Amino acid sequence: MKILIIALVLIVMASGFVVADSVTYDVYEGWNLIAAPLVPYNSTPSSAFSGITVMNRITRFDAVSGGDVALTIYTEDEFGNILLGDGYWLSQSQDGSVTIDGIADGVPTNGVITDMCISLPGVTDGEGGWHLISNPYNHEVPVGEDGVNIKFTDGITLKTWKEAAESEWVSNNMIGFDGCLGSDLDTSYTVYASMNSLLPFHGYWLATSRSNLCMIISGTAVAE
Question: CA dist 184 to 30, 78, 174, 203, Å?
Answer without folding.
Answer: 14, 28, 10, 11
